[in-house]
Specification:
By secondary structure, the chain is α+β, with helices and mostly antiparallel strands. About 30% of the residues lie in helices and about 30% in strands. The chain has a single domain (about 1-175), classed as Nucleoside Triphosphate Pyrophosphohydrolase. The strands form two sheets. Strands 1, 4, 5, 6 and 7 form a five-stranded mixed beta sheet that branches. The protein has a three-stranded antiparallel beta sheet with strand order 3-2-8. It is globular.
């Protein structure tokens, strides 16, 4: 977890205007328990900014539970290697083979998840990684999605109707 602390600190230096970085470091102090959804108040999740081979498009999911277009991702389920979590979730949710993941966090997003059934309201500390498609970009829609779609990154950045965190990631991508 020391590696994650260093990565979060580097991220904070790269993006000083993003104020939630200290919350991510504090959550790490809670130990490996914070990588499990049984950490009821708050836990880490891993997501994929899944970029096409031409670097112009990103694969989004129309999330079944949330009913919104978002990046692929999910719970760490005890895995403290969040880059591996992001890669696993991208593979499972897209069915795309030959993906690769960059080791450093691309984006951090702390957001409230509303209560659903027996699950109380809680915080997701979502660590997002760049995941790259290889030769194949053919996807299969999983049970977690209503649909999947490759979307132009420029279009996401310029669309005020896009999810705020998607726009932020699109602008970061365009600055690379």
């Amino acid at each position: 977890m020391h590696r994650l602390t260093e990565q979060f600190q580097q991220y904070g230096r790269r993006w000083p205007e993003e104020k939630d970085v200290s919350h991510f470091i504090e959550l790490l102090d809670g130990g490996e328990h914070r990588f499990r959804r049984e950490s009821v108040e708050a836990h880490f999740t891993g997501s994929a900014w899944l970029v096409s081979a031409d670097n112009e498009r990103v694969l989004l999911t129309h999330h079944r539970k949330l009913g919104r277009w978002l990046q692929l991702g999910g719970h760490a389920d005890g895995d403290v290697d969040l880059a591996r979590v992001a890669l696993r979730e991208a593979e499972e949710e897209s069915g795309i083979v030959g993906l690769s993941v960059e080791p450093a966090p691309f984006d951090l997003d702390r957001h409230r998840i509303p209560a659903r059934g027996a699950e109380p309201e809680h915080w997701h500390y979502d660590v997002r990684y760049v995941v790259r498609a290889g030769a194949s970009e053919a996807f299969v829609v999983s049970e977690e999605s209503h649909a999947l779609a490759w979307r132009p990154i420029r279009q996401i950045a310029d669309d005020p109707q896009s999810d705020e965190s998607l726009r932020r990631m699109a602008w970061k991508w365009l600055q690379r």
